[in-house]
């Protein structure tokens, strides 16, 4: 893992490959580890970066509220620290929301966005997955939420395998390690309290509405929505809403998977993202990277020079033909003059 200082703390991140930046953003309660089997499908054509969000994974745990705005602020600082000016963003769960929020606030920094199992707009409790409603209402209740998320470590010990039972003991241990005590789990508790349901919290609702406007108004920015079956956050109704309201959108199904889909379908996700990147020329060709880009540019320059040389030769040949035609015409003109 790499680390970089941001604001009053640090963010940890993985990095592999060369070329245009593709940033992978995780959700709650996972970390950059969730992208471990997705990134290899893209790393042959891009510089792939996957940060641990502030307070999560191997990143620092400053004394902050861990609200949505806090995560966005630290993510902005990470982009600044790494000088990421033009990136493609790939996100699931809250990582998808942070990707869209960043794109809406800094449109010049984002070249494309790919999402799966993410919050694409504010929701109502009636729209929220029915089986999750009582649990998330409890998590949003003072005292009860602290018992579940902080004392019982509910997100790690129960929720992960409830949605994705195939997570191995070794991988579950990776997700568990950053949260050894109740104080370390505060970021996990705050996330469910940030979901804008029935209009609350209003500040997060407003940010979701703002990035909804960005999605509608940017047909020139490629967007990819990957869907899973049965889907929790991305239901068929949400897919229909996206088709009607998101400009420049492509939708692709990747098969059955739990909410933390990169655990279940990493190859399908990686291949789908790689194809999308290629279709829109958002990254270099496979196995190109920076050197490949330079080689392509050199080849293009050589081709342009050859084309210019060919054009010059053709022009010279045409001039010679015109001159020859003129010389041939001169005696004939003389004959005609003599005849007169």
Automatic annotation (TrEMBL):
<feature type="region of interest" description="Disordered">
    <location>
        <begin position="316"/>
        <end position="340"/>
    </location>
</feature>
<dbReference type="InterPro" id="IPR050266">
    <property type="entry name" value="AB_hydrolase_sf"/>
</dbReference>
<dbReference type="InterPro" id="IPR029058">
    <property type="entry name" value="AB_hydrolase_fold"/>
</dbReference>
<feature type="domain" description="AB hydrolase-1">
    <location>
        <begin position="21"/>
        <end position="134"/>
    </location>
</feature>
<feature type="compositionally biased region" description="Low complexity">
    <location>
        <begin position="316"/>
        <end position="330"/>
    </location>
</feature>
<dbReference type="Pfam" id="PF00561">
    <property type="entry name" value="Abhydrolase_1"/>
</dbReference>
<dbReference type="InterPro" id="IPR000639">
    <property type="entry name" value="Epox_hydrolase-like"/>
</dbReference>
<dbReference type="GO" id="GO:0016020">
    <property type="term" value="C:membrane"/>
</dbReference>
<protein>
    <submittedName>
        <fullName>Haloalkane dehalogenase</fullName>
    </submittedName>
</protein>
<dbReference type="InterPro" id="IPR000073">
    <property type="entry name" value="AB_hydrolase_1"/>
</dbReference>
<dbReference type="GO" id="GO:0003824">
    <property type="term" value="F:catalytic activity"/>
</dbReference>
């Amino acid at each position: 893992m790499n680390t970089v200082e941001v604001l009053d703390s640090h963010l940890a991140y993985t990095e592999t490959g060369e070329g245009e930046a593709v940033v992978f953003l995780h959700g709650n309660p996972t970390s950059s580890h969730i992208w471990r089997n997705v990134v290899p499908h893209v790393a042959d054509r891009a510089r792939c970066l996957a940060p641990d969000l502030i307070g999560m994974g191997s990143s620092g745990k400053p004394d902050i509220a861990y609200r949505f705005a806090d995560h966005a602020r630290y993510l902005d600082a990470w982009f600044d620290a790494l000088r990421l000016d033009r990136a493609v963003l790939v996100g699931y769960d809250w990582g998808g929301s942070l990707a869209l929020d960043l794109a809406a606030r800094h449109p010049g920094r984002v070249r494309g966005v790919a999402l799966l199992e993410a919050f694409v707009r504010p929701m109502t409790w009636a729209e929220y997955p029915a089986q999750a409603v009582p649990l998330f209402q409890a998590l949003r209740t003072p005292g009860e939420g602290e018992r579940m998320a902080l004392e019982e470590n509910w997100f790690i010990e129960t929720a992960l395998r409830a949605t994705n039972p195939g997570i191995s003991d070794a991988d579950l241990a990776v997700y568990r390690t950053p949260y050894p005590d109740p104080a370390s789990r505060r970021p996990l508790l705050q996330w469910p309290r940030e979901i804008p349901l029935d209009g609350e919290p209003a500040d997060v609702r407003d940010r979701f509405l703002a990035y909804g406007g960005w999605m509608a108004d940017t047909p020139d920015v490629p967007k990819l929505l990957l869907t899973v079956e049965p889907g929790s956050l991305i239901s068929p109704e949400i897919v229909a809403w996206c088709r009607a309201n998101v400009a420049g959108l492509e939708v692709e199904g990747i098969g059955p998977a739990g909410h933390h889909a990169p655990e279940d379908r990493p190859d399908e996700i990686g291949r789908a993202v790689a194809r999308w990147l290629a279709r829109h020329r958002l990254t270099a060709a496979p196995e190109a990277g920076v050197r490949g880009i330079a080689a392509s540019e050199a080849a293009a320059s050589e081709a342009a020079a050859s084309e210019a040389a060919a054009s010059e030769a053709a022009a010279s040949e045409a001039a010679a033909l015109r001159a020859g035609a003129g010389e041939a015409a001169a005696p004939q003109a003389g004959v005609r003059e003599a005849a007169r």
